[in-house]
Every structure is written in C-alpha cells, then in structure tokens.
Automatic annotation (TrEMBL):
The keyword Transmembrane helix applies. InterPro entries: Sortase, Sortase_dom-sf, Sortase_F. Keywords: Hydrolase, Membrane, Transmembrane, Transmembrane helix. SUPFAM superfamilies: Sortase. GO terms for molecular function: hydrolase activity. It comes from the Bacteria. The chain crosses the membrane at residues 12-31. Pfam families: Sortase (PF04203). This is Class F sortase.
C-alpha cells in the first residue's frame, strides 16, 4: 500500500512543485498491532533551524555523486540511488521493498557542493521499520557522512531536527538556496492516520563541516 506523505516544493536551486510520496505507509503498525511503537519524533530540545544563522562551515567540495549515507548515532549505513521526477512532477522514491536504501535528488545540488542537497528515504514499509525509521531521534551536533564516487567523504553536522505537518511545511526553509554546502534528510513523520498514513515529514538540517 502506498500513501502520500505530503506535497512539497523545492526552491530555485533544485526544482519546483515536487511531491514527496510513499516514504512510509505505516501498514505494518496496523497489521502487527505495533501502533504504540511509532517512529520517534524530534523534541523541542533539538532547536530550530534558522537559515543564514552563524555556523562554521567547511569549504565546498568539487562535484561528485554520492553513493552511500551513514548516520552513526542512529545506525544508518545505506547505499544511495539517484531520484528523478515522476511524470506528474513529483519526486520519485526508492523502492518500498528495499528497506535499507535511500535516494538523493540527482538533478539538484550534490552533497558537498554549495547549495541545498536533498536525501529522502522510507520510514517504514509493510514489513516494518526502514532506513530512516529513527531519523526523528537524531540529536543536534550528530554527524551525517556521505560517501562520494570520487572516494571522498563529505561530513555534515546536524543543526536541527524538525517535524512538520503537511499543511505547515516550510518549503523555502527546507529547500531554499544556501550560500554554503547544506544537506536535508527527509522522511515521513508527524501524526498518523489509519486512512491516509503519516501526516507530515521529519526533516534533518545539516551543514558541511569537513571531509576526508
């Protein structure tokens, strides 16, 4: 079963009128009786991301496609596939059956370049938790590592972790242009409905702080 997560629009640095869909249906919650064990959600203690805020950042890296994402604090270690747009203008998603697979928007900014790069992945599928199930538990200051095809690793530091209902999703804040290398990691989250699935998104805001 595929459920829409929310409608979202990327800024001029990427694309416009993009819909992120089917990043989590919650079907397993109902089928397994695990409704009380829903994905963790960000706490207010993780702060609010302020675009343009004072944050030390590393110099941008030369362009190179990403191949893998690692978030040690929540035990994420997953390959990345390129995501394009569907015929309806929405952002495609990794196959739901691939629980440990994430995707990056390949027509947008490459992770490590100046601008806002976007990575998306499922929170769950019909069988259980998927790659970004614990994304909402991530803490400010945690590390996100992106392996790149040229052999380098782009190292990002988390600035904030936020959750938005679909009706309140701040498109410009999440997808807007950035003057430094930044990363957004997105999955479904927020409230949950038995009929329509998850009602919003968990968004991790991070910026480049190093490479190796």
């Amino acid at each position: 079963m595929r459920r829409s997560c929310r409608r979202s629009r990327l800024g001029d640095t990427a694309i416009a009128a993009v819909t992120v869909v089917a990043l989590g249906a919650g079907v397993w919650l109902l089928g397994s009786g695990a409704g009380s064990h829903r994905p963790p959600q960000p706490s207010v203690a993780e702060g609010r991301f302020e675009p343009g805020g004072e944050r030390l950042a590393a110099a941008a890296l030369a362009p190179s496609p990403p191949v893998r994402i690692r978030i040690p604090a929540i035990r994420v270690d997953a390959p990345l596939m390129g995501l394009a747009l569907t015929s309806s203008g929405s952002l495609d998603v990794p196959p739901a059956r691939e629980k440990n697979l994430a995707g990056w928007y390949q027509a947008g900014t490459l992770p490590g370049e100046t601008g806002t790069a976007v990575v998306a992945g499922h929170v769950d599928n019909a069988e259980g938790p998927a790659v970004f199930y614990d994304l909402g538990a991530l803490k400010r200051g945690a590390t996100v590592e992106v392996d790149r095809r040229d052999g380098t690793v782009a190292v990002f530091t988390v600035d904030a972790v936020e959750v938005y209902a679909a009706r309140d999703f701040p498109d410009d804040k999440v997808y807007g242009a950035a003057a430094r290398p930044e990363l957004r990691v997105i999955t479904c989250g927020g409230g949950y409905s038995r009929t329509t699935g998850y009602q919003g998104n968990v968004v991790v805001f991070a910026h480049l702080t190093g490479s190796r």
